[in-house]
Amino acid sequence: MAKTIITCAITGAIHTPTMSKNLPYTFEQITEQAIAAAEAGASILHLHARDPENGKPSIDPDHFMEFLPQIRREIDAIINISTGGSLTAGIEERVAPALRASPEMCSLNMGSVNFSIHPLADRIKEYRFDWEEAYIRGSEGNIFRNTFSDIAEVARIMGPHDVKYEHECYDVGHLYNLKFCVDRGIFKAPVFLQFVMGILGGIAPEIDNLVFMKRTADRLFGDDYQWSVLGAGNAQMKLAAVGAQLGGHVRVGLEDSLFISKGVLAESNAQQVTKVKRILEEQGNEIASPDEARAMLGLKGADRVAF
């Protein structure tokens, strides 16, 4: 069995500061938690930025550059920058941080989806910041737009930067979207898939669905792909354990779940990485180092980034 890559998604653009005091949003907090997650065993760090004054998700490239250089100086993990950090911004804005940083990897959503967290609003009685309630409730009306033209535009803009995409697939149709793009020459195999499971609007985080996603990917891409799975919320560890048994890689982090166990908030991203690493090793998986992950995914190397 090939070694298993652990990705850690440090802060994301979903959860808000009221939901957990441990969600990092200042530049210092993102830096510290990213470094700690890498030291705990994560080979890939999936990064978003936030406004350090109030924790609001940010796609300002200057915000990213406040923490990217220090993270790179401290650890050798692969940096993966999101191109999906806003549900309402256009493609040029969303891709601007990756364009500025020219990372080894960046995420790319492979289809439009209803992306909502609005039920969480009714669980919160008091908010830390004024923007949070409207942000959460407003997601009920959001379509996370990722049309074929949007996808092609990201590929065009980032083409000269030789990045490897984390192709985020929120449902089985997104696998077919990617296959179409590969057939058209927009992306080259082998591809790296991220099965995103458990988002309201996407595929449910059930084992049968995970197996179906993998079987579909096998049929579409043969041996020309690698894959990872993330389970949102309480599905995080369960899907990681099963996914690794099926030969996949795994993603954890406070972007995907704020909890370490039922009803218990995670103290940090590193705590989640430590737990999933222990689970995987106990079931016989070996964990890939950053350099092993680079070789497995065919990355350009950290010496070719722009931060």
TrEMBL record:
Presence of the UniProt keyword Cytoplasm in the record: no
Transmembrane regions: none
Pfam families: BKACE
Necessary cofactors: Zn(2+)
Entry GO MF terms: 3-keto-5-aminohexanoate cleavage activity; metal ion binding
Domain of life: Bacteria
Keywords: Metal-binding, Transferase, Zinc
InterPro entries on file: Aldolase_TIM, BKACE
PANTHER family: 3-KETO-5-AMINOHEXANOATE CLEAVAGE ENZYME, 3-KETO-5-AMINOHEXANOATE CLEAVAGE ENZYME-RELATED
Name of this protein: Uncharacterized conserved protein, DUF849 family
Organism expressing this protein natively: Tranquillimonas alkanivorans
